[in-house]
Amino acid sequence: MNSKDIRELSPAEIETKLRETREALVQLRLRKHTGQVEKTHELHAHRKDIARLETILNEKKIAAA
Q1: CA separation (Å) from 23 to 11, 32, 50, 64?
Q2: How many other CB atoms are there within 10 angstroms of residue 21's CB atom?
Q3: Can you state the angle between helices 11-33 and 41-64, rounded to 10 degrees?
Q4: In angstroms, rounded to a whole number, what is the distance separating the alpha carbons of residues 50 and 48?
Q5: 43 with 26: CB under 8 angstroms?
Q6: Which of 26, 57, 59, 64 is the most exposed, fewest CB within 10 Å of its CB?
Q7: Per-residue confidence (pLDDT) for residue 37, from 0 to 100
Q8: Which domains does the chain show, CATH number per domain?
Q9: What residue stretch is flagged as signal peptide (predicted)?
Q10: DSSP 8-state symbol, 13
């Protein structure tokens, strides 16, 4: 998910995506510790997505205030 797509979402949708991405990251971490993850690069991608979502959500909150 890129920044342009995220900016088109409403703050509520961004929070939902953020929650889903965090849950996916937790599941990936658990699977990694048990040796079931083949695509370890997904961990990095989820962390980057979380950072993008949080940054844009904070920008929208500041703009609304």
Answers
A1: 18, 14, 11, 28
A2: 19
A3: 160
A4: 5
A5: no
A6: 64
A7: 87
A8: 3-64 (1.10.287)
A9: none
A10: H
The full DSSP string for 22-53 is HHHHHHHHHHHHTT--S-THHHHHHHHHHHHH
Token pair listed for 51: 């950072």
* The amino acid at 47: R
Both tokens assigned to 32: 């990694």
> What confidence score (pLDDT) does residue 1 get?
81
Amino acid in position 36: Q
| pLDDT single digits (tens) 9-47 | 999 999 999 999 999 999 999 999 999 988 999 999 999
Query: pTM for this one?
Result: 0.91
